[in-house]
Task: structure prediction
Amino acid sequence: MYSRHKNSQAFGAQQEQLAASYLQARGLVLLQSNFRCRVGEIDLIMRDDRVLVFIEVRYRRNKGFGTSVETVDRRKQQKLRRCARFFLATHGLTEQLVCRFDIIGLTAAPGQEIEFNWIPNAFH
Result:
C-alpha cells in the first residue's frame, strides 16, 4: 500500500510538471508548485503577465466518466479559494492583486499522446 501511494505521488508530480511545461510554453511563469497549507494544496502558482494564477492540475486516463476538468467541483473550488487567500496572506500580498483560477486537464491512456485542456479563469 505504501509503495502504491508513493508511486501515485510520483505520477502526480510528473503530470504537474507536464502541465507546468505546457503553460510555460504559452508564456506563463512558474512561481511555485505544490503550495500546501492547512486548508489544502495548490498544484501550480504561476504569473501570466501581471496576473497571479492559481492552477489545479487534473489527470484522467479516458473521458468515459467525464473529463478531468469536470472533477473540480464546488467543494474543491472552495478549498482552492481558501488556500489562495492563505498564500496571499502569508506572502504579504493583498487580495486586491489581480488573480485567477485556472484548471488544466491532462487526458491520455497509457501509450497515447497526452491531450491538454486548459481553462483559464475557470471559476471566480
